[in-house]
Amino acid sequence: MRLISYDAHVNIDRASGTSEAGQFVRAAEAAGLQAVALVTSYAPSENSADNCAERLKAVASTSPVQVVPAIQTEILDSSGRIRAPASACQSFPLVLAHLSERTAAIGHDVPVRWEQLIDNIFASLTGAIETGLVNVLAYPFNLGRFPAPVTPGELPTERLEELGDAMAAAEVACELCNRAWWWYPDLPVGEFTEEFARVLQAFSRCGVKFIAGSDCCDINGVGNLRYVQRLMRQAGIQRSQLVDITRL
Q: Which of 7, 142, 174, 203 could cross-link 183 (Cys pair, CB 3.0–4.6 Å)?
């Protein structure tokens, strides 16, 4: 039996129309999934968020797989301000936020003091939660390719638990990303898995819910959650702790 019946992070930015987006849904059906979240990255110069959400909903009529329209947006600074405006976020049942090279004082203009960098990281994630617009932290702590890399093992447990409490209170989920290891090219996969499992365990103790996504960009990756399953085993996360995206 399949452990996870959905893929909550399928990137469709390369799909130019409804028919191409539909191929991702067909791939989800072929993989035996019950639901798939089709994720578009917020870009103010492209079609309006409303139009994009409606286009994704239209795809749902072609398949028995439940389609969840989703938008992904960057966290811009340590206040937690996100790039997508409220009007865009409100068009989607699933809003994912993440740190990026655009995140001030983390992805660029990094402070000299390590303690200040850590403060900025946790402040940015907490601030994004407090906007009330975000319901998933996408590939959290994707810090291994930034100018000043911070490994999961370097994150203070008490800060993780503070963040976990905030996530649980606001019902913001932590993404279990199938490509989480990619962000740390200098860490062996096994070592990263052990370190990141400690992060997930801290969140789990706080009652945080998790959401599973492939983070794929083509149809061949839809439903590939093998590494997610490995993370779940390593961290002791149960299926009951996963968000059911079919209820969004």
A: 142
CATH number of the domain located at residue range(s) 6-247 in this protein = 3.20.20.140
Say if residues 25 and 36 touch (Cβ distance below 8 Å).
yes
**pTM score, whole prediction:** 0.94
CA distance linking residue 235 with residue 204, whole number of Å: 9
Whole-number Å distance between alpha carbons of 224 and 192 = 19
The ranges assigned to domains in the chain are 6-247
Q: What whole-number distance in Å separates Cα of residue 66 and Cα of residue 202?
A: 31
